[in-house]
Amino acid sequence: MDEGLPAALSSALAEFCRHLAAERALSRHTVRAYQGDIQSLLEYAWHAGIEDPAFIDLTTLRGWLASQHQAGAARATLARRGAAARAFTAYAHRQGWLAVDPGPQLGTPKARRALPQVLRRDEINVVLADCEDRALRELAVGQRSTAALAMRDAAVLELLYASAIRVSELCGLDTDGLDRGRRTVRVFGKGRKERVVPVGIPAMRALTRWEEVGRPILANEHSEDALFLGARGGRLDTRTARRIVHVRLRAADLAARHAAGHADPDAGAAPAVRDAGPHAIRHTAATHLVEGGADLRSVQEILGHASPATTQIYTHVSAERLKATYRQAHPRA
């Protein structure tokens, strides 16, 4: 923690972060975000003459957020930092550091929720078909390591779209989390909450091929029980998984352009497949489920959302896509 803070504030920050990691089981990324926000709050408090968390009050919280606003922080950032401040003061109150919790009285602007990026069905179909073609080509050529990576990439894309799991959940999968008989995968989401998600036949086929043919080629003493492996045999990390998605989408777009006679991406033609990351694949899968008639409660369980309000955005995405199609197709739109 920041050694520049007074001992009481530094100790409070350290204990709060330990609470987030150990008791709430939040990811390292989330804990790091909380730590940055609360460190900023405590530094503001210290510069205001406060050296102990017992003296943090509503005026302190409002002054800190006002300084953030004056510094140009976006509404979404202010909303996140306000939520972090409320979590910290609630914990401080429970620990007895604060006689009264000022957090519930803190008002913050609600972040404007932009509709998530969603690929069309034809786009995701092009991507998955290109991944499959690449895996079959590399298998036919006989380059073992290259073929194994191609099979892995195909399984990664198929599973992300089939299950709508997060990239961190995908990378955390172990081999025993896959149930081929029931065609399900067991994942651990935010807060280490376990859920079982159905997987379609094409995805299970790609996963089975990867596990039986591709994975043994890359596996070594560092692999342990990880389902997905990196090129050196260790557990696939989230950065590499994100790169796989971007690379495979760009490759599918290039292949589709070439097939259509528009191989030059700078020629002005619209992309056959837009670039996107793993979270956009998750949004895509959820939107396609809603468009296909799935009820929101089921989609919420598949996605692992704690609140149905979080899942509600996919109804807006579907409505916007429907309106866009109407505007393009109807002569009097």
From TrEMBL:
InterPro entries: CB, DNA_brk_join_enz, Integrase-like_cat_sf, Integrase_catalytic, Integrase_recombinase_N, Integrase_SAM-like_N, Tyrosine_recombinase_XerC/XerD, Tyrosine_recombinase_XerCD. Keywords: Cell cycle, Cell division, Chromosome partition, Cytoplasm, DNA integration, DNA recombination, DNA-binding. It comes from Trebonia kvetii. It is found in: Cytoplasm. The gene is xerC. Its main location: cytoplasm. One of its GO terms (biological process) is chromosome segregation. Residues 7-93 form the Core-binding (CB) domain. Site-specific tyrosine recombinase, which acts by catalyzing the cutting and rejoining of the recombining DNA molecules. The XerC-XerD complex is essential to convert dimers of the bacterial chromosome into monomers to permit their segregation at cell division. It also contributes to the segregational stability of plasmids. GO terms for cellular component: cytoplasm. GO terms for molecular function: DNA binding; tyrosine-based site-specific recombinase activity. Residues 114-327 form the Tyr recombinase domain. This is Tyrosine recombinase XerC. Transmembrane segments: none annotated. It comes from the Bacteria. Belongs to the 'phage' integrase family. XerC subfamily. The active site is at residues 166, 190, 279, 282, 305, 314. Gene3D superfamilies: 1.10.150.130, Intergrase catalytic core. PANTHER family: PHAGE INTEGRASE-RELATED, TYROSINE RECOMBINASE XERC. Forms a cyclic heterotetrameric complex composed of two molecules of XerC and two molecules of XerD. SUPFAM superfamilies: DNA breaking-rejoining enzymes, lambda integrase-like, N-terminal domain.
